[in-house]
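Whether sequence alone determines local backbone shape is best considered at the level of individual chains. When preparing material for the folding task, we compiled for one chain both its residues and its backbone structure tokens. The sequence in question and its structure tokens are set out directly beneath this paragraph.
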Amino acid sequence: MKVLIIGYGSIGRRHEEVLSSFHETESIDIVTKQSIDNKKTFNDVNQVNDLKLYDYFVIASETHKHYEQLKYLETNVTDKIIFCEKPLFEITKDLKIERNQVFVGYVLRFHPMLQKLKSFLQNEKVLSVNVNCGQYLPTWRQNIDYRNSYSAKKDEGGGVLLDLSHEIDYIQWLFGTMKEMKSYQLKISDLEIETDDLTTLIGKTDREVIVNLSIDYISKITYRKMLIHTLNDTYELDFIKNTLIQKDKIGLEQVYTFSNLERNYMFEQMHRSILSHKKSVCSYNEGLKVMNTISIIQEQNK
């Protein structure tokens, strides 16, 4: 398998690290302006000599570049597998994918406790879900001034709504597409950014599940949790501690854990899925549904 990675920031390097460990990977070339030892590189995707030589494309560039790069690949190759980092775009764009298979990088779908929760919910009537996620932006990325990161810049697709769209994706994956919502997308802190640092909403999905969501750049205590109420049980999933608690009406409690979750585990599972059975992975159409929900929130807060 010949791989072309487009973009070589921290996430592009992680995809290279993961795919290099796959026995079927024959070579990995990279589109970047950086100089990389022992790697074939191109300054731009339109400078790649023969795109048809590659079997797997990984778009890991800044969000605002995704549309043009994806459109270029869709126009110039056929019957290829294309992976695009999340979110698909910075705003909803009209791009039909007909010649290739495209998947979106919502890697949290492959968290082992979220997978277990999904299996538990198959036979449950879900009533409501509360999702909360936050981390102080200056602590996100080592050796990078947060003020210079794409997260701080509106024209590069930054902001907490786009950065933490994982939460919107797994809500819609588990509980249905958002059909009603009231949202607030705000800049409320003293962070030196031009993007939103808090987005919160309450709404309902097409499966009649009540949703309460809050995501932020401002919490000095890092947290990522989901609380689900069903007719029979309450579940609490903590993505940081890798725990899932299930408690029923009579007070019986079960605790599930996944100790020593390796750094690249979810990325490995995601790429394996894309290259084989394609279970759990976010499809292009599902990625567009996330963008549609994001667009509604953006429109409500203009």
User: Anything to note?
Assistant: The helical segments are 10-20, 66-76, 112-121, 160-163, 166-175, 265-275, 284-300. The longest helix spans residues 284-300.
